[in-house]
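Hi all, a correction to my earlier message: I attached the wrong file for Succinate dehydrogenase hydrophobic membrane anchor subunit. Here's the right sequence:
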Amino acid sequence: MTTSEAPKLAKTVGTDHDRPASLDNPRSPRRPKGGNFEKNAWMFMRFSGIALIFLTLGHMTIMLTFDSGVHRIDSAFVAQRWGQPFWQVWDLSMLWLAQLHGGNGVRTVIADYSRKDSTRFWLNVVLAVSMILTVGLGTYAILTFDVNSVG
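and the right structure:
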């Protein structure tokens, strides 16, 4: 080795140790295998919880404190309310956020407490099917409610 090759050799030898391990190893703890799903699920729980607080408190305030409270709630009241796009969006937002928020929480409980992979899989399948049915039927009821049939 000549003296002119020594700096080049030093640069190439030192580069492997200067790089962080997460850039070389795809299974490093800094780069999760499944992407950022758990982080995004965690963030969704926080933001959906805040949104649900405002949506449900607004819903309860409107339903319970104005006029004669719960005594005025009947099919005609629901028809009048769901005849307006604003209230459809409000109630759909509550339905979807509550279902996804709760389902995400149950998914976390299933992951924490199920010991066998097969049990975890089937509980998650039952959870997903129940969430799809609940959101689907609720959305169908809100969007297709016939305002003219009541009254």
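Sorry for the mix-up. The chain has a mean pLDDT of 84.
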